[in-house]
Amino acid sequence: MTSLFRTAPWLALALILAASPALAASGPPPGFVLTDDADLAFTSPDGATRLKQYMKDGGDWDVKWQVWARRGDQMTELKPEQGYGAGFRFTNDSQWLVRMQKTGSGEQDLFLYHVENGAFASATKTSLSDLAWAYFYSRPDTKKMKLDYHISANLVKGTEEAYRALGVAWPDNRYLVISLSGEMDKHPKNVAVKGLADWRCRYDLKTGTFDVPAMFAKGNADALRWEIRR
Predict the structure, then answer these.
(1) Which residue has better confidence, 193 or 54?
(2) Contact (CB, 8 A) for 139 and 93
(3) Is the CA virtual torsion 42, 118, 102, 131 positive or negative?
């Protein structure tokens, strides 16, 4: 056998390795620095998942934030990348996670994640806040309201204890209570601010649907009439 044929298997292996994609590094890309703000670090109730947030300042107001979830030796980015740090709440079983993401002055979105194959992944095709607003505008009593700024979706505190503080006996790890708010450009001259304040709905994690429990009816009626007079 010639030396050419003896070295051919090694050459083939080298070519295969060169053509194979490199494994992605586990963690944020270069330029992202771990924040030292303790309020931006979160741990799941079972202690298995830790969330860390990294920032990259490109100058000229070009700031980017990434959130990474560590479970054991595995790190997974919780997309999407955003321009601000975020708050998080877990359900008590540590299987669901809601991201409360500031998007501007007085504005906020919500993103929902679920544990899939041992790591958190997006649970909905669009943001949870977009789904909540779509539900709001699908209802006959709210579909005509026009909001222009300070549009915010908020997660009402209580996910980890199934909202017992509201006086309910809902199943554990089943529901999220979402509060919607926003303000209008057009309003009477004797009104300083007019809009929507703390209109609440409930999201069912099992069915992926929204509803408005009867206990929210009065508060929601008041939320639709919210204004601050001069």
Answers:
(1) 54
(2) no
(3) negative
- In the chain, which residue ranges form alpha helices assigned H by DSSP? 3-19, 128-138, 217-224
**pTM for this predicted structure:** 0.85
Shortest CA distance to 178 belongs to which of 135, 121, 226?
A: 135
- Which two tokens mark 164? 């017992």
Quote the mean pLDDT of the chain.
89
Average pLDDT over residues 137-152: 96
Sign of CA dihedral 38, 110, 152, 47: negative
Q: Residues near 157 by Cβ (< 8 Å), separated by ≥ 6?
A: 89, 165
pLDDT at 25 over 60: no
Distance from C-alpha of 230 to C-alpha of 112, rounded to nearest angstrom: 39
Taking only Cα atoms into account, the Rg of the chain, rounded to an integer number of angstroms, comes to: 24
